[in-house]
Model the fold of this input.
Amino acid sequence: VTVKIEKIAISIAIDGTATYGYAAAETFAGDEHSSYEARVTAGSYADGEDFATLLATGLSVGTIETSYSTGDTVGENSYVIYTAFTGEADNYTVTAVEGRLTVNKRAVTVYIHDARSDYNEDIAELTWSVTSGSFYNEQVPFTLAATAKKGDPVSAAGNTYYIYATRDEQFSKNYDITFTGSAQYNGEGAGVYTIGAATVNFNIAFLGTTLEYDGTAKQYTATIIGNEQVTLTPVYAYYDAAAGGYVTLGEGQDHAPVGVGQYRVTFTSADENYTAASTSNDFEIYARTIGVTIEPDADLVYDAQGHPVSLTFTKDGREAIVDAVWS
Done:
């Protein structure tokens, strides 16, 4: 009995994937950004066999060509794969048919940087960097925006502002973008935008660095350099040798010093949106020098009688006010 075993007729398409912005590989082995697999469209393999069996028994996959071009978009078109087989598998008659190429999104991770500006300044430039992957052909498929705007109050007053990304409608569909940053906003990574207090520069009315005691408070005032509408309050401090530094007396003119000592005046703003510059003035109040006239100015002979003595204090030829107890 003669038995003739005929080859199995089978039709096979080569399907594959490519990553957006990368060329499709021209060989069945694929590469880092594309891959291929065989799909039976007609007929079937014998039990226990598959496409690897065909390759192991004489079949080869020729050069792969596609209707896809580098930069073609994801999901909008059906891309065809053309190929031909060379050689012959021992037990199969193989016919090549058209396959389909799927373009996958390109994975990119973007870090959104933090940024800051001072109160009432324009919003600073918002920046980002790619930490993994890359964008094709210098595309930037998103824009950055801040939840803060010029004139918003400072962050230190309990306000939290973010920098977030919005994907565009043209190119973002080709990417799988992961946004990261120091914060989260609307479920995605984001940056933090900080609004700091604006610095108010000012001049201190100069009373002098050495002031003679005269019984009055040495009150300093500030004149703002610029157009900021803010009130500056003086802060007075005295030098404490034991402490090795200045100790605050208090804020406001009620704390302006009167007595002898070394002092410093700075200024502060009650408006949280402003901070006073670090301008200061050190000054010293020194003891007042006065003349004393004693009456009577003569030697007296003891006579068992009381002789009152009067003291007259003078300063620069005039009677002086003395805030003291004399004995």
